[in-house]
Amino acid sequence: MVDRMAEGSTHIFRASLRGRLYRDIEIDSGKSLYDLAEAIVSAFDFSFDHAFGFYDKLTGNYTQSPLRYELFADMDGGMSDARSVKRTSVAQAFKGIGSKMLFLFDYGDEWHFKVEVIGLGKKKPKAQYPKVVASVGKAPPQYPDPDEDDVDEEL
Which helix (H) or strand (E) holds 68? Predict the structure, then answer.
């Protein structure tokens, strides 16, 4: 499904892990939430190798979110009651500046990203999207060394 409103436009997101650790990402507004998820994960130098979802409940029990978009909706015949991340465009899920959701990546390790629209733009000819337009803070390792945690606890 082509979103006519999204043609030629971009969304600029701030994907925050915590406080001053974030990436600002500009993406074609017509791209899917799957593409946005891949851009966020890539911006933090993580491997895009786990299931994920977008939830409008930013705190508390995200599974109680009235609006959910999950990869599970695109797998196994769509047994989930969530909406599709592959068939939902960025513009459909994020209506404008200030729209925000929780992006949960890896249901085991539970990486919680707050994703907020901080700007809207126009696609520039020959520009490649998605692109990271700002990077603040050093991304943590996706898979921390368990031995390092033990050493920290002993100090």
Answer: strand 68-70
Instruction: Locate 27 and state its tokens.
Output: 């993406």
Give the count of domains, the chain: 1
Q: What's phi and psi for 110, nearest 5 deg? A: 50, 70
Radius of gyration (C-alpha) of the chain in whole angstroms:
16
pLDDT computed for residue 145 by the predictor: 75
Burial of 80: CB neighbours in 10 Å, binned 0-12, 13-18, 19+: middle
**Residues of the chain falling short of pLDDT 50:** 1-4, 150-155
Residue type, 125: P
| Token pair of 134 as six digits | 């700002």
Determine the pLDDT at residue 78. 55
What local confidence, expressed as pLDDT, does residue 75 receive?
Answer: 76
CATH number at residue 102: 3.10.290.30
